[in-house]
Structure prediction request, 138 residues.
Amino acid sequence: MLAWIRKFDLKKAGWISASVGGINILVHILVIAGIIPFLWVNGGRTESLEAARQISTSSIIMTIINILIALVASQIIPLKLNKFFGIVLSVFLIITLPLTLVGVVQQFLGTMFEKCVMSIVTIVGFCSDTRIAFEKRW
Prediction:
């Protein structure tokens, strides 16, 4: 299984992961701007536009951090990591994979926009994150 996952190019997986993060950021910016109704995201459970703005702002910050980690882990941003930090990065990425899988399930339980659009984006992100997570770094 790991050999099959590793056949996909690591840098392509990094760019795909960054693109998925960019789409996620774009959706949250559109929610903050009021272009996309706030009831279309977060499972439609957000009470007000102000609450949706707070959630979207924190999601943007977390997504930016995830993009940076993906770019470093996929060696698009070249950083020399010693063995310890390579292991820490690998463990972090592997531990966050189940959380991403939970995100996929949540998309299918959400609003129609999340089911039709964001679920595809999340699945593509999960696949590219899986490739990045299982790269041998030590």
Observations:
- The CA atoms of residues 28 and 56 lie 5 Å apart.
